[in-house]
Amino acid sequence: MSVMVKTALIQTCTPATSRAGLAHITPLIRQAAAEGVEFVLTPEGSNFLEQRKGLREEALSDEATDEAVLGLQALAAELNIWLLIGSVIVRSGIEGDDRAANRSLLIDPQGRITARYDKMHVFDVDLDTGERWRESAVIRPGSQAVVADTPWGGLGLTICYDVRFAYLHRALAQGGASLLTVPAAFTRPTGEAHWEVLLRARAIETGSFVLAPAQGGTHEDGRKTWGRSMVITPWGEVIAKLDHDQPAILHATLDLSLVDAARRAIPALTHDRQFVSGQ
């Protein structure tokens, strides 16, 4: 018998403070739960998005005291759902390093945090549009890949720019993940060019479901994000997709038997070979 899971991806245009971020996302999560969803996923930066230095420092707090984190834990317990907070921006807690962590949190139906993942690959880039991003200046990269336990199997956690690093997703799949999450706040130029093709590639090469809830729209700090949240099967088929960047709920029911079917058809995860790099 197939294992089925009803999911909802929340697409947001998150405000610049944690209190406002919680108020923005809560009605969407409530609506998804009322529609019978078991597993809800939110985007990167679900507590706040703010790149202006002074305002960002005012908004930043510890994970244990962040208003959005605490509020979403309570909400998951109230609604009896699994909730992936795609990421929150919180203090890293590392002595001597004042950069923040960009952290995914998996919350169970009792409101407990059961897994954490700190974004490993930070976005440092100069775009042809003139946009310049130096995420490493404010975000401390994580160093540990995470496969979390869920009632539906292993959940491989990634965040945004991680999607460009195939080896991470391969390691997660080989480590037991059948679902890969890619919460994001993609820029418009890179989103339009690469978002869907990268997500589909990660699904195909690992034989995994990919769930990618996204930020979309123009934010209070002036940044513009791409939206277009989507869900992709282990065969690379897009089974649910938003065609805009407005706040919304994207529903998808996942048939987990498709993971085994895809990996039997193309067992690439078992075909690794040692090689010597060319000169």
UniProtKB/TrEMBL annotation:
Example of a GO MF term: hydrolase activity
Domain spans labelled CN hydrolase: 5-256
CDD domains recorded: nit
A Pfam family of this chain: CN_hydrolase
Sorted UniProt keywords: Hydrolase
InterPro entries named in the record: C-N_Hydrolase, C-N_Hydrolase_sf, Nit1/2_C-N_Hydrolase
PANTHER family: DEAMINATED GLUTATHIONE AMIDASE (PTHR23088:SF27), NITRILASE-RELATED (PTHR23088)
Name this polypeptide is given: Carbon-nitrogen hydrolase family protein
Organism: Brevundimonas terrae
